[in-house]
Amino acid sequence: MILYKGEVYGGEHTAKLLQTLRADADETLLHKRIDREKLISSADIISKRIKAGEYNCLLSEIDVDGIDEYIEKAAEMLKRENLLLNIKASLPSLIDLPDIVQYIAPVGVLFHIAAGNIDVLPAYSVLCGLICGNVNVLKLPSQDNGITVKILSELIKIMPELSDFIYVFDTPSSDIGSILKMTEAADKVVIWGGDEAVSAVRRMLPANIGIVEWGHRISFAYIGIDYKKYPEKLQGLAEHIIKTSQLFCSSCQRIYINSDRVENAEAFCADFLPYLQSARDKYPLKDKGAAAEATLLKYAEKIEKSINNEYKDEKKYYGEECALTVKAEKELEISGFFGVCDVTPLPLHELFSVLRAKKGYLQTACIIADDATAQAAEDIMVRAGVNRITRPEHMSDAFIGESHDGAPELYNYVRIINKEM
Asked: Is-contact 109 134, C-beta < 8 A?
């Protein structure tokens, strides 16, 4: 599905439309401007319609556990006051210079290469580009179910002039020729994805086209030995793991216990599994096929480790459609998905070295411990490179005005112009 100047086309029109993409984008860039106030008002209208239930049929296509809460947060993010707060927090501040006037301008044309792990992420990425006044070209992820075009079409219905600023293609990543055509139209490429995707884009980009990388990140929980004092936080962590299916960069992929004894990690698993099971019972597994595939991959890994005699240090704690594994290996890596998480003993004095080995990949952490341990762990995390520290239940929540992976969200989508008086 293609969205081009407000019209929807089938994939067979890709080649023809790409022939005019660069000229059409440049024509818009030269002659047209986005009224930001009107855009904010249009987004606010959608927010009100979401809350009124007008888009329930459309939003029901989003396959996320706890969908009502998810939709409520999406509506909040589109509210006028929250968009204004995000703009204030994310755009660069101008300073007074002698004989120099500064003002903010859009980058020009942004080419968004979206990831498919969050259903509304592609549309949100385009909205960020629009807020900054850019023309936006979007390559949809292969998993997109058509919801992105529907959401952006709704925005264009409210504000028709946006049709000249939005170009959406469902081109597969294997079609390098078409992707290069989209790249040629761009001033910057905004890439959401893992290391392989980011590296591939880097290799194909000419020197005069910038890149904004929202790449692979990994997140974790750090638990004090006194964890039994915090049942509500444990329940929050369990529900976070289950509700996100551990598919986001901000999803908990490893639980570290402040101890050097494997027995303490085993005790935690025995105590935490009922919380995880309770969360699974509350949010039943939806994507059985994807979960089965993930299980098969983990089983294949188990067989390989058994053959290589690497499996002896692991102990499993199984629930119904959820599981915990005690792992001696301390490296921060992906545990699995759909309610499967590794647990590792890691004393506080080793935390920095383990985290530092993943510099550049660290995103969100939560801490469940007494105040002294929590403060010491937070200080180490910040120095090691962690960008977000949240409550357990909020690890994958987006907060209005917060930075994205340690940087202001909109900063890379604008330029500061200096004019001498």
From this structure: yes
